[in-house]
Fold each of these.
Amino acid sequence: MSSSGSSPRKFPHTEGNLNSDLISFLMELAEYENIVGRNVFKSNAYKTAASVLASHPKRIASGEEAAKLKGIGKKIALKIDEFLATGKLEKLEKIRGDETSTALKELARVSGVGPTKARQLYDEGITTIEQLRGNPEKLTHHQRIGLKYLEEFEQSIPRAEIEALEGALRRSLSALPEPITLTICGSYRRGKETSGDIDVLLCVKSSLDGNATSTEDPKTAKEKHGKKFEDKNLLSRIVNLLEQDKIVTDTLSLGDTKFMGVCRLSDDTPHRRLDIRLLSPDQFHCGVLYFTGSGLFNKEMRSVALSAGFTLNEYSIRPVGSTGVAGEPLPVTCERDIFDYIGMDYKEPHERNM
Ligand code: 8DG
Ligand code: CA
Ligand code: CA
């Protein structure tokens, strides 16, 4: 999320929600704190409050009532009171009229331009997208591609298009000699009707166990291979194949296990942001859990894990001893195992939309 920045499409779905006016002013403040204030902590506090209201079944009548909900503090309650009483927020009126804030927000629309880069550009006298187009030398490769497809990347992706793309990806990958499993995660896996980008997780059986020689202790083998794939070129072979098949059109960055780029289903559909991760079988389920999100759900789940004595990340779940040192990764055969370890009721992907 850090690299894509905050954009309107990230806002919770507010249409028809009883508190949609409150949610949208909270998300506007979250965006302001992220891009202009560069305060992730404050930004997240607003995002959490917005998400709490998005899943609240009743219309909020006062700040006091809102403050009773977990995730909404006193300061936000005061803003809710001000909004309910006057229909607006003094702070937001100021922000909207402020040229610096407006310029920074505008620049941060570009994929790859985060709060720091936006500020740097602004300090160099760049305040509009048009000026940015006239000064491409100020941008990295990623940011240039972000600028090139600015309007296309801002269009949300219908579910049916991702379904079709999933089929196209599978057909393409079937040309590889090694069997690969493909799971599209992110908002798509959470059942959303539209998505901001496409998050693809790939898993191959060719890594750790397959490559350790029979006399090698598996633990030594793991250390030696550093959890990387023996075939360092696998992901670039995959990307080449997707380019040949006219699915991938541009590369933003490519490593051994992570690809960020651009794809297109056909000449009639917009260019879309595509993220691909290559995971080994032992990392797969923690990876699927993490990349399914939502980001706020992950945050919540990690804190449940910590209270239960585990540390959870995109690769593994590990017990944390009384000394605070994390132990070896625990065996995981499905997502449910992870919920079981930490004593949390299993949630289907569509129940993780917070
Ligand atoms: P969207 O693309 O439709 O807007 O929503 P999304 O699929 O939920 O968001 P995403 O930005 O594509 O991220 C995919 C998942 O990755 C997200 O659901 C949860 C996980 N994730 C975190 N933290 C972060 C982070 O800091 N950056 C990114 N890129 N992903 C993160 O939990
Ligand atoms: Ca996504
Ligand atoms: Ca993504």
Note: The chain has three domains: 8-153, 157-281, 285-352.
Amino acid sequence: MNPTLDTRLHDAVSRVRQHWRGTRLMDGLEPGVEGTRALLDVARIYRANRLEIGRMRPLLGRAVAGLFFDPSLRTHTSMEVATGRCGAHFVYLQGGEGTWKMEFDEGVVMNGQTAEHVKEAAPVLSSYADVLAVRAFPRSGNRDETVIRAFARYAGAPLINLESALAHPCQGLADMLTLDDLGGGGFKGRKVCLTWAPHPKPLPQAVPLSVVRAAILGGADLHVACPEGFDLDAEEMERVAGFAADTGARVTHTRDQAAATDGALAVYAKGWAANDRDHHSELAAQNQDWTVGERQMANATAFLHCLPVRRNVIVTDSVLDGPKSRVIPQAANREPVQAAVLLSWML
Ligand code: CP
């Protein structure tokens, strides 16, 4: 045990707790501006000392249950690795396959395919694990948060949303850490571009909305570029705008991708569904020139994407394989921010 590192870790965690005593990380706004900054301080300590923390095992004896109703490469691996490095046990559960098919609606006569109600599953898992972590994409449309909200309602244990319809808070935290790194310790007042890019599927807005939340919490000069018919969710945008007054963030909405990318510290590309979801394919096909290439990156510092990314659809090979791409360190930042949340709840 390194007493200096142990003290630094405990001090950093206690600063998180001064600002955030909540036990739900649902959309990433819960820790607030100061709590988020404190969480990122814990993440930096973890990132710089992860092998030593792995030897210290500060969360020995604790357990995290990760329930995935949808596929994952980064989220699953980084959660399991962060949990293990902290000394806690991670249980991976595949929703609907390795577990009983779950029911979320109230008052259902369960004589069909579903065998277990979330009303039992969530408290039972909470009786074994100190933290639950759930990934559940929308079952229909873009705003369906039935699964994660049911867990929030019935789980006794602290809960991390590992991506739902409207939020991917761990991705947002990792993106903040990445933007902090790009900005040399912060990105307040720096231009950040979030641009829509073509994708064949009508994807939900969990990631782009989390990018907006991260940029606003960090005080960015955020430029959101998308073609007509692809505007971000107005209700969520209004909710997060409340934080801009505290951080000095500015948000500009534009159809002009060239103006939005010009001079940006980071160009963050993401595909999301057309507002007219039923005509997504045609509308996306009309905007193929929004694929991020050398032209869009000419006067920008870095390219970001949450991954997985479709090459030469969202972004060209030359950008993704080029020197401005920061997608690998961006993905690597998932582990320390998730460790920071676990440490803040369980240390
Ligand atoms: N970015 C992200 O959440 O990746 P996975 O879907 O692979 O977990």
Note: Residues 72-75, 163, 171, 306-308 surround phosphoric acid mono(formamide)ester (CB under 6 Å).
